Amino acid sequence: MPTRISLIKGDITRIQADAIVNAANSSLLGGGGVDGAIHRAGGPAILEECRQIRNRQGGCATGEAVITTAGKLPARFVIHTVGPVWNKGNNTEEALLASCYRNSLQLALDNGVNTIAFPNISTGIYHFPKDKAAAIALETVRGFTNTNAGISEVIFVCFDDENFQLYQKEL
Ligand code: AR6
């Protein structure tokens, strides 16, 4: 069965998928943007698990991903990935952003996740250009799901109008 790719405008903390993805930072200790919203809505259990991961492996590198349960959220898991900070495209930001999507999907597969929702990683506080980020997100997700069976649906959740319109155009 081919993976369904869908688009929703709204708040990712309300999405009932097996996993939602968080645009975290390498400390895994929370922050603003979607990271703040997920920890606020999900409650302290998520932060406690992030602390345990930190103690074990010292945080999460850019482009990598870790998984926790989802506390009070309707999802079962939160996959925390660390997007690159945009620096004029000089520091392999594009490859690192693609790694975020790929590593999140691999972790999802490893944990039996069928449906997964992504925010627009790096396009807020980390200032990755939204058009470039949308193209990378779609290309990477399509590439991964075309060569790996097991994920039935990938939902892109856009919070701001600009991202929503870009994804509408690309899809
Ligand atoms: N649901 C879905 N998307 C959201 C939500 C939400 N509730 N809130 C914001 N967005 P950002 P980054 C969108 O800044 O650029 C944090 O402090 C937002 O419109 O959350 O990867 C972390 O701790 C934007 O399109 O993440 C890091 O330090 C997208 O989410 C840093 O920010 C990503 O914006 C990560 O920066």
Automatic annotation (TrEMBL):
Coiled-coil stretches: none
Signal peptide residue numbers: none
Where's the Macro domain?
Answer: 1-171
Q: What is this protein called?
A: Macro domain-containing protein
Q: Which residues cross the membrane?
A: none
Query: Which organism was this protein described from?
Result: Filimonas zeae
Q: Which Pfam families match?
A: Macro
Question: Could you tell me which Gene3D superfamilies the record lists for this protein?
Answer: Leucine Aminopeptidase, subunit E, domain 1 (3.40.220.10)
Cite the SUPFAM superfamilies for this sequence: Macro domain-like (SSF52949)
InterPro entries assigned to the protein according to its UniProt record, in alphabetical order: Macro_dom, Macro_dom-like
